[in-house]
Design a protein that fits this description.
The complex is a heterodimer of chains A (about 250) and B (about 270). Chain A is of the alpha/beta class and about 250 residues long. Chain A contains 8 helices and 9 strands. In chain A, α4 packs across α5. The longest helix of chain A is centred in the last third of the chain and has 16 residues. Chain A starts with a strand and ends in a 26-residue tail after the last helix. By secondary structure, chain B is mostly helical. In chain B, about 80% of the residues lie in helices and about 0% in strands. The chains are: A alpha/beta (about 250), B mainly alpha (about 270). At the A-B interface, α3 of A face α6 and α7 of B.
């Protein structure tokens, strides 16, 4: 077990966003988090990351997370909530993934610079490493932020809508590199509005709409979504064969 | 007209120009990068309340200005963190509160308030040795803070919510940066005046930002541009008998105009 949420109720000031939520994240998990806007997806991530304290319930961390001195949770936030024109370079962004609370005096080491360079090369942003963040495209920024999330070689990677601003080609590469990361036994939690595109990659689905329903498979039907209290539209992409959601075999028998 | 360098007051004014330049390099770069220009506008005007209090109590108006300036900077930060009041509304409140208190205190102070226009419009030619030492010390503290925590500060300023997930002390550092910047801003009021001080701190980094998006480079080059502009402005004001603060600001704006033209030519080639 890496992380376990137990009976979590959480929200802001006067409103409750999540109620009695239970979720266990194990090594090798690849959980797709879906649900309507305002249903609590981002709040769930913030509880896991420790940004929001739950009003009741508890978050347990496994030894691998708890005992490690390194940063063990990598996080790719949504792109919309920070100043893209602040004067930092792509390299600065990636390197910042090595900073954490117990190291405010930190100076980047040679190994860290090398790892940042390796990640930028892998993500195909090595050639723009000196460019300021304000002059790169949304997709390039997304890759820089993903490199930042991977910098400290985390046990869990949490991604909030990673497919906004990226083109189809990068989206495919993104999911392939996440798959490789997952195959190393690392866990992934991925929030998406578009379960159709990722159903091929994920291993289980968490439907979040105030409550959380865990579905231990990557195949889900509209009908199940309805019983899970998860009214989202499944977007199917007919021209990309592997992304079409299969119909649930049981429902035909 | 005599050689100005023969006068002690002019030498002091030159040192003040250099210190103002360093202020815009360190505090100004942070203010411009974090889009806090309007916050500093609010802080400098609210410090007028402290100047009034100083006159009223018969103590140093600068001490009062520091008190009001730093507290309103922290107050604006606090209000936009903790309450539903947005930052620009908080600025508006502190801005007018300080001005209103200043006007009332000065009205209540018997007799004439000496040098009042010096605080409003700046008077680089009458800065005291104490003013200079205080400004140098405040700059040194902020510079030291930056040297000590540079990667962390850059990260916190760029992406505070992500820095918070990494358990970095985002709020504490923001309060420290805001407080020190306000202190430096208030100490520059002697040079440029309440109304013009934000241009001294923020125009040079804005000029460099046209050409560079490297934080460190903006710090270094805006210090150099600011010192150059302030010294040119000081000499012009001496030889043409113009008010020093306003002349320095005009020089900055001319440099900004020239930089814009150069940038445009670069962009089209």
């Amino acid at each position: 077990m890496l992380i376990q949420l137990k009976d979590i109720t959480a929200g802001y000031q006067n409103s409750i966003v999540l109620r009695n939520v239970n979720l266990t994240v194990n090594p090798g998990d690849y959980i797709g988090v879906i649900g309507p806007n305002g249903g609590g997806k981002t709040t769930l991530l913030k509880v896991i990351l420790g940004i929001i304290k739950p009003q009741s319930g508890k978050v347990f961390f496994g030894d691998k997370i708890r005992l490690s001195k390194e940063k063990t949770i990598g996080y790719l936030p949504q792109l919309n909530d920070f100043d893209k024109r602040f004067p930092v370079s792509v390299t600065d962004i990636v390197l910042s993934g090595f900073l954490s609370g117990n190291a405010v005096f930190h100076r980047y080491t040679k190994q860290e610079r090398e790892r940042a360079h390796y990640l930028m090369k892998k993500m195909g942003i090595e050639n723009i490493r000196k460019k300021p963040a304000g002059e790169i495209s949304g997709g390039q920024l997304q890759r820089a932020l993903l490199s930042r999330a991977l910098a400290s070689n985390p046990e869990i990677l949490i991604l909030d809508e990673p497919n906004t601003y990226v083109d189809n080609k990068f989206e495919h590469e993104l999911y392939e590199s996440l798959k490789a990361f997952n195959e190393e036994g690392k866990a992934i939690i991925l929030v998406t509005h578009d379960v159709g595109t990722i159903s091929y990659y994920i291993k289980s689905i968490a439907c979040v709409n105030e409550t959380l329903f865990f579905h231990p498979s990557n195949i889900i039907t509209e009908k199940q979504l309805a019983t899970y209290n998860c009214p989202i539209q499944i977007i199917t992409h007919g021209d990309i064969p592997h992304t079409v959601l299969k119909t649930h075999t049981q429902s035909h028998e | 007209m005599n050689n100005p360098l023969e006068y002690a007051f002019f030498i002091k004014a030159l040192i003040a120009s250099i210190l103002a330049g360093i202020s815009s390099g360190i505090a100004g770069t942070w203010i411009v990068s974090k889009r806090k220009v309007f916050v500093t506008g609010g802080v400098s005007h609210s410090s007028f309340g402290g100047i009034g209090l100083g006159y009223f109590l018969g103590i140093s108006p600068v001490a009062g200005a520091i008190l009001f300036g730093v507290l309103s900077a922290l107050g604006i930060e606090y209000m936009s963190y903790k309450t539903r009041i947005r930052e620009d509304s908080a600025i508006g409140i502190f801005w007018s509160l300080g001005m209103a208190l200043g006007i009332i205190f000065i009205y209540l102070t018997p007799g004439y308030a000496p040098n009042l226009t010096g605080y409003l419009f700046g008077s680089i030619l009458i800065v005291s040795g104490t003013d200079l030492i205080a400004l140098a010390a405040a700059n040194a503290i902020l510079l030291f803070f930056f040297i000590l925590f540079y990667p962390t500060l850059l990260f916190i300023s760029y992406d505070p919510s992500y820095a918070e997930t990494n358990k970095l002390p985002v709020r504490l550092f923001n309060y420290i940066l805001m407080g020190l910047s306000a202190l430096i801003l208030v100490l520059n009021i002697r040079i440029a005046g309440i109304i013009l001080v934000i241009s001294i701190l923020t125009i040079p980094p804005t000029i460099v930002n046209l050409f560079s998006h490297n934080y460190l480079k903006i710090m270094i080059y805006s210090t150099l541009i600011s010192i150059t502009g302030a010294v040119i402005g000081l000499f012009l004001s001496y030889f043409w008998s113009l008010p020093s603060g306003a002349t320095i600001v005009m020089v900055f704006i001319m440099i900004f105009g020239i930089a814009r033209i150069i940038r445009r030519i670069q962009g089209s080639s």
